[in-house]
Description:
- By secondary structure, this protein is α+β, with helices and mostly antiparallel strands.
- The protein is built from two helices and eight strands.
- The protein has helices at 5-24, 48-54, and strands at residues 39-44, 64-73, 79-93, 96-115, 118-128, 135-141, 144-147, 164-167.
- Strands 1-2-3-4-5-6-7-8 form an eight-stranded antiparallel β-barrel.
- Strand 4 and strand 5 (118-128) form a beta hairpin.
- The chain is globular and about 45 Å long.
Amino acid sequence: GIFTDQYMKRLTFILTIPFVFLFAGFSITPKENADISSIYGGTSPCATSIRSFLKIPVTEKCDEIGWHLELNKDDNKNPTTFILKRGYKYYIDNSTSQSKGSITIEGVWKITKGRKSQVNAAVIELRAQHTSEPLRFYVADENIIHLLDKEDNLMVGDGGQSYTLSRIDNN
């Protein structure tokens, strides 16, 4: 009949191809030569562990941080400087928030390899003059970076925000 073994194998293969391409885009393994130079943005909760780097006093009320991170490279595509614009606010109630101002932090960045659970992972490391502690991001792919804690674990957000920054430029 029409459903011979050879026909069924060919049909299964043809129907499988779109799913392979669909799910390939959802891989969390970074591409080896991902173009990391870019602009990333997002919002996150206001964890105590990142306040020093972001120049947010520990005594200040802070519920949400807005991020705008520019990663620059030289003509040879080597990492050079970063510009991080951040603002923060706290919630007075469910419909009202109070902005606490914004600043710009500048420094240098580099790409390192490895974090505790993924030895070949690409990691962005930001260094600023006002603190000896770097800020580190796991590169999920060229469009998504995720903040790491001091032990190189992915930071966990809350019901409203995560520590993931998304690429916002169109390069």
